[in-house]
Amino acid sequence: MTVTNPYPFPINVHSIQARVAETSRWRCKPTATNLKVGPFSGRLPLAVSARGQKAAGELEVTMPKTVADACQKATFRLVFTATASRTAR
Fold first, then answer.
1. Which domain of life is it from (predicted)?
2. In the chain, is it the N or the C terminus that has fewer CB atoms within a 10 Å radius of its CB?
């Protein structure tokens, strides 16, 4: 994944997470039994320059054996969150 810094100052990213927010099929619930999002794998903190971008690492996404039949051919929407702090110039 890539982290984009929209601010006019550099930042240090301290954590990155993701969760399943919704699916394209109403019978397919956005739960960990249907799609599992693993922990972030990458180096933190991550320094990102003002209005810059940087490759951050990965989150492994897997479909467990408990997946509901209703999830066949479904699209899953993930929501990403991160914490960051402003760095000195």
1. Bacteria
2. C
